[in-house]
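Below is a filled-in request sheet from our internal design queue. Each sheet records the structural input a requester submitted and the sequence that came back. We keep these sheets so that new team members can see what a complete request looks like end to end.

REQUESTER: design group, bay 2
PRIORITY: normal
MODE: inverse folding
CHAIN LENGTH: 276
BACKBONE (tokenized):
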């Protein structure tokens, strides 16, 4: 770069007028939550409304702000335009979100009876439960109309799985017909269990349509994720070999997903020139 000094702050990100999605991620224990929380506060000083979402199972944003957050957005104390929520995009958390969604779709009665078919779908397409949960999460967040959403993500491997979910939907949709062949009798009788009218749509068709709708939602959002004007990823690391190595791998993977990476935050650095 010919000796050119790089900007040592995230000011260009905070000042951006177009960014809608900001991901903060890296190896565990490098200060992702501190960085994402600080960034969310700075963005809230510039934006109309900001949502900080933790998808890290450790859920440290409650500790960062000294207040308890849940799966529903709640205002950060002392800030009118910054909200936060903690969601569990894991196997167990995904199943809970999926069960709630299915139960709601079928009036609550047929949901549990459908779970064997859902379990089979998860065996056919490993990770589809997390993909569905992420689709439901994104669908919910989009309906809230926040100016900017900041994700405090789980460690690197889990984050990369999240970003690869659109491909899982491509694999899952054709499996619905296979499920229909295997569970056809049970699926055909669930309508009466749920109190659905005769002639209504078969439940396996409804399940397939639900997955297709989620696939469309995730595809639309993924298109936004690949637009550098709307989405960026902030990598966080510390000056140690394993952290730097994992950050390099993360940047390469993000590039393969066509996701913008302009900023890397390096924590645990002491400026000796200032007498540290």
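RETURNED SEQUENCE:
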């Amino acid at each position: 770069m010919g000796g050119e000094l790089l900007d040592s702050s995230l000011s260009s990100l905070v000042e951006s007028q177009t960014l809608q999605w900001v991901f903060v991620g890296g190896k565990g224990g490098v200060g992702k939550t501190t960085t994402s929380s600080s960034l969310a506060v700075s963005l809230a000083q510039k934006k109309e409304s900001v949502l900080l979402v933790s998808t890290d199972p450790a859920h440290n944003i409650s500790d960062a702000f000294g207040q308890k957050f849940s799966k529903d957005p709640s205002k950060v104390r002392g800030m009118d335009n910054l909200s936060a929520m903690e969601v569990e995009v894991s196997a167990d958390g995904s199943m809970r979100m999926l069960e709630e969604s299915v139960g709601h779709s079928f009036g609550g009665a047929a949901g549990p009876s459908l779970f064997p078919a859902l379990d089979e779908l998860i065996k056919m397409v490993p990770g589809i439960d997390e993909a569905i949960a992420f689709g439901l999460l994104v669908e919910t967040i989009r309906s809230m109309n926040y100016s900017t959403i900041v994700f405090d993500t789980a460690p690197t491997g889990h984050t990369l799985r999240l970003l690869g979910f659109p491909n899982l939907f491509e694999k899952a949709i054709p499996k619905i017909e296979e499920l229909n062949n295997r569970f056809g009798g049970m699926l055909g009788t669930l309508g009466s269990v749920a109190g659905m009218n005769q002639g209504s749509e078969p439940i396996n068709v409804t399940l397939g349509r639900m997955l297709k709708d989620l696939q469309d939602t995730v595809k639309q959002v993924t298109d936004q994720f690949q637009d550098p004007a709307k989405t960026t990823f902030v990598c966080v690391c510390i000056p140690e070999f394993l952290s730097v190595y994992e950050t390099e791998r993360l940047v390469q993977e993000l590039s393969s997903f066509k996701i913008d990476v302009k900023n890397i935050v390096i924590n645990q650095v002491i400026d000796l020139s200032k007498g540290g």
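SHEET NOTES:
- The chain is about 50% helix and 10% strand.
- Residues 114 and 187 are 7 Å apart (CA to CA).
FILED BY: M.R.
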